[in-house]
Amino acid sequence: MEDCIFCKIIAGDIPSYKVYEDEEVYAFLDITQVTKGHTLIIPKKHVTDIFDYEDTLAAAVFARVPKIAKALEKAFPEMEGLNLVNNNKEIAYQSVFHSHIHLIPRYGKDDDFSMHFGSHMDEYTEKDLATLAETIKAQVSQG
């Protein structure tokens, strides 16, 4: 895609700090470096978000995640954990519309990265949860 910054990075038109590349995947440091080693993994084929993936491309991209995560862990022994983040569509904070997975190393509670999940547990009965699960399950089985 012509106007896509990540496609331009893959093509070499925009410089990046590459950490991994193969025939289907490109991984590079995020220039924001939320924490030291913050890495993006992207498919070389332009797909907008998770809803745009075909099974084979998803398998290729997501299979590289543990490999790069383990490399981060070895590169930064002081790392205590890692957040894996994938934002899809603007409402979910996607800002570059070429699918990408953030690997954000965590070095402690004060490393300037946090995620907050609200809880609505009290709003759902067991019956509500069973109905939600069945609704999703029906769609999964349809493919």
TrEMBL record:
<feature type="active site" description="Tele-AMP-histidine intermediate">
    <location>
        <position position="100"/>
    </location>
</feature>
<feature type="domain" description="HIT">
    <location>
        <begin position="5"/>
        <end position="113"/>
    </location>
</feature>
<dbReference type="InterPro" id="IPR011146">
    <property type="entry name" value="HIT-like"/>
</dbReference>
<dbReference type="InterPro" id="IPR039384">
    <property type="entry name" value="HINT"/>
</dbReference>
<dbReference type="InterPro" id="IPR001310">
    <property type="entry name" value="Histidine_triad_HIT"/>
</dbReference>
<protein>
    <submittedName>
        <fullName>Histidine triad protein</fullName>
    </submittedName>
</protein>
<dbReference type="GO" id="GO:0009117">
    <property type="term" value="P:nucleotide metabolic process"/>
</dbReference>
<dbReference type="Pfam" id="PF01230">
    <property type="entry name" value="HIT"/>
</dbReference>
<dbReference type="GO" id="GO:0003824">
    <property type="term" value="F:catalytic activity"/>
</dbReference>
<feature type="short sequence motif" description="Histidine triad motif">
    <location>
        <begin position="98"/>
        <end position="102"/>
    </location>
</feature>
<dbReference type="InterPro" id="IPR019808">
    <property type="entry name" value="Histidine_triad_CS"/>
</dbReference>
<dbReference type="InterPro" id="IPR036265">
    <property type="entry name" value="HIT-like_sf"/>
</dbReference>
